[in-house]
Specification:
Mean pLDDT: 79
Strand content: 15-25%
Distance between the termini: 126 Å
Structural class: alpha+beta
Shape: rod-shaped
Number of strands: 8
Helix content: 25-40%
Order of helices and strands: HEEEEHHHHEEHEEHHH
Strand order of the largest sheet: 1-2-3-4
């Protein structure tokens, strides 16, 4: 047997004893996380063209797709709430409380928030700070300007407990002489005690009567 024939035989025997080649897996049309496989990108390393839900097209390795290592073009990581640097910050506690009131059915206050359809549209403590700035001091907490609106940029502010009480959903607003404000503000403006105005309203007095009858003289 010649040298060339011997090499050919050894090569043939080596491949015949080796494991069979991995079977090709057609992943076209399959969905993995936010990605949908469009077509084969390369025969080498089984690379695939994939379209993300956000519209971006990327090339991903088939094994990474099947193992769940690649689930998006990167937008999933960007969209995921980030708490880095805030976990020990009071803003993180405030944000978590907002989320719980809106989403956790076991939260005692859920019925007044999530139960009424109120949502927390701020996805991280960073978004909370960007919307209303740093917390002025420990006496301030997040207040919704429209008590029937969501926790969202434009509808939240820092407010003291007294300011929040004036904005409570059950705080009665009175309109008199073309002006509308809560009882506490009318009491301050007219000089009438809050309890007197409130008592008059409970007895059936109109807003005009409650605010104009026997107004106390201010010095």
């Amino acid at each position: 047997m010649g040298w060339a024939s011997a090499v050919e035989r050894l090569t043939r025997d080596r491949f015949s004893l080796s494991e069979p080649m991995a079977q090709f897996i057609d992943m076209t049309g399959q969905a993995y996380g936010r990605l949908t496989v469009l077509s084969r990108a390369s025969a080498k390393n089984a690379m695939w063209h994939c379209r993300c839900e956000c519209g971006a097209v990327i090339i991903a390795l088939g094994t990474n797709l099947r193992r769940g290592n690649t689930k998006s073009c990167g937008c999933l990581r960007r969209d995921k709430p980030t708490t880095h640097g805030f976990t020990s910050h009071d803003l993180y506690v405030i944000w978590k409380g907002m989320k719980a009131r809106c989403e956790n059915t076991n939260e005692p206050a859920f019925k007044w928030y999530g139960g009424r359809g109120i949502k927390c549209l701020l996805h991280s403590p960073q978004e909370l700070e960007e919307a209303i700035g740093p917390r002025p001091d420990p006496q301030h907490s997040v207040d919704r300007i429209d008590s029937n609106g969501h926790y969202a940029a434009g509808n939240i502010r820092w407010a003291t407990q007294k300011e929040q009480q004036r904005n409570r959903r059950n705080n009665r607003v009175l309109t008199w002489q073309g002006k509308s404000q809560c009882i506490a503000d009318w009491a301050k403006e007219t000089g009438l005690p809050y309890r007197r105005i409130y008592g008059r309203l409970r007895r059936g007095w109109s807003a005009e009567q409650a605010l104009s009858e026997f107004i106390a003289t201010r010095s």
